[in-house]
Backbone:
């Protein structure tokens, strides 16, 4: 049935929640101080007579609290016909949770997906694209000190701002892992710190698809040394100009980086006797006549011709469109906390919601010949409405009925795919006062 994969992943998350509840000592790194009275009292913070159990807290935050807290709590609990608990109780329990708990839950979901048989691959490779985006944060001092401030061209501080970095499986439309770092953090350093852990979560051979913002000799060296394949867009380098002027479609070149380049901060590179990189260049012509150069370590010996390299790079696009879903449908930038760890909780919870929506969407259009795709805005809204039942009634007959009903609805809400469409990036000024702001085309699903 269409909902089997989604249902299986819900059961996976439920099993992990039960495991954590039963093994608090083992998983204590995901929680703040317990203030236990004795050795048997360490689980009472979530188990005593309270509606804010660990399961409730998890699904409540995953459902995205984008309204004021009293309204969100009323909506969540009244759905189940239960009295609404206090917002102070929610705030206290939230301080017990660490953002690492939500990161771990997403890793559990991702691991289980790649252990299954539903994984789409390109010639046996998982395609991981890395992309970054600026994220506006609530205007409080703690967040500004942690992540930095967005500045005007004159240097005036406007509001706290961070930088999101996602590793997106572009064939399966899953965010394998993600980080929210300081506004001025170099995205290449974020990639270097996380690419191995991202690839390890898939348990498969990996090809990294990277835009020119990630181009560096050190990243080329690291990926090649550790056995990863890559396709990335080159920056404006002397050999790039020379290759374009040659008129060739492809060429294998050897690069000898100078001491001023990024790779020389790598101690292993400095110890190598032969300090050179061998890469393959492929010309990439855009419809407007502009030509780019793609750099790869995929060779013709791997059975990959230059057209395959171009096609691979084009498959990077879902990493870009994922931010449209995060920021518009999920309202990622409407945070429900003013604390650093609360913001990170919201961030990683949004990743889980996105992945659940992608899993539910996978079977929404089983026929690949039909040029339609599931409407993620509707799917996210359906999961948002399901979260209260997931929190309080796991395994019930009513939940099974709702899951089957949601699967049927997903197949009815689709969007036609129109190929070769492009849209110019529209720059909009942001509201710099008040708790939240909206874009003019905001289509919130939650």
Residues:
């Amino acid at each position: 049935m269409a909902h089997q994969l989604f249902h299986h992943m819900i059961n996976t998350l439920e099993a992990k929640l039960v495991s954590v509840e039963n093994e608090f000592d083992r998983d204590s790194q995901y929680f703040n101080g317990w203030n236990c009275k004795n050795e048997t009292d360490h689980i009472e913070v979530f188990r005593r007579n309270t509606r804010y159990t660990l399961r409730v807290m998890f699904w409540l935050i995953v459902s995205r609290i984008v309204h004021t807290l009293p309204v969100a709590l009323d909506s969540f609990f009244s759905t189940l016909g239960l009295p609404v608990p206090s917002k102070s109780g929610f705030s206290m329990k939230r301080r017990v949770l660490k953002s690492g708990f939500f990161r771990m839950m997403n890793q559990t979901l991702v691991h289980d997906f790649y252990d299954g048989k539903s994984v789409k691959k390109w010639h046996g490779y998982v395609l991981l694209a890395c992309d970054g985006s600026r994220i506006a944060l609530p205007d409080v001092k703690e967040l500004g000190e942690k992540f930095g401030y967005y500045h005007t061209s004159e240097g005036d501080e406007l509001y706290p701002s961070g930088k999101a970095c996602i590793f997106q499986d572009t064939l399966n439309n899953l965010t394998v892992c993600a980080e929210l770092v300081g506004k001025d953090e170099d995205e290449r350093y974020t990639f270097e710190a996380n690419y191995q852990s991202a690839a390890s979560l898939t348990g498969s051979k990996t090809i990294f698809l990277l835009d020119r913002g990630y181009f560096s000799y050190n990243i080329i060296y690291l990926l090649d040394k550790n056995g990863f394949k890559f396709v990335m867009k080159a920056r404006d380098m002397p050999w790039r100009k020379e290759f374009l002027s040659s008129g060739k479609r492809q060429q294998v070149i050897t690069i000898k980086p100078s001491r001023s380049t990024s790779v020389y901060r790598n101690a292993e590179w400095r110890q190598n006797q032969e300090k050179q990189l061998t890469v393959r260049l492929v010309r990439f012509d855009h419809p407007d006549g502009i030509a780019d150069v793609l750099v790869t370590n995929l060779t013709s010996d791997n059975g990959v011709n230059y057209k395959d390299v171009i096609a691979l790079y084009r498959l990077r696009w879902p990493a870009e469109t994922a931010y449209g879903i995060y920021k518009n449908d999920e309202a990622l930038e409407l945070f429900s906390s003013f604390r650093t760890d609360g913001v990170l909780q919201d961030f990683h919870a949004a990743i889980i919601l996105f992945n659940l929506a992608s899993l539910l969407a996978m079977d929404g259009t089983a026929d690949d010949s039909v040029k339609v795709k599931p409407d993620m805005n509707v799917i996210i809204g359906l999961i948002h409405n399901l979260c209260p039942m997931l929190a309080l009634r796991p395994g019930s007959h009513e939940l099974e009925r709702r899951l089957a009903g949601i699967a049927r609805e997903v197949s009815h809400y689709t969007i036609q795919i129109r190929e070769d469409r492009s849209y110019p990036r529209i720059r909009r000024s942001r509201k710099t006062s008040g708790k939240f702001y909206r874009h003019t085309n905001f289509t919130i699903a939650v």
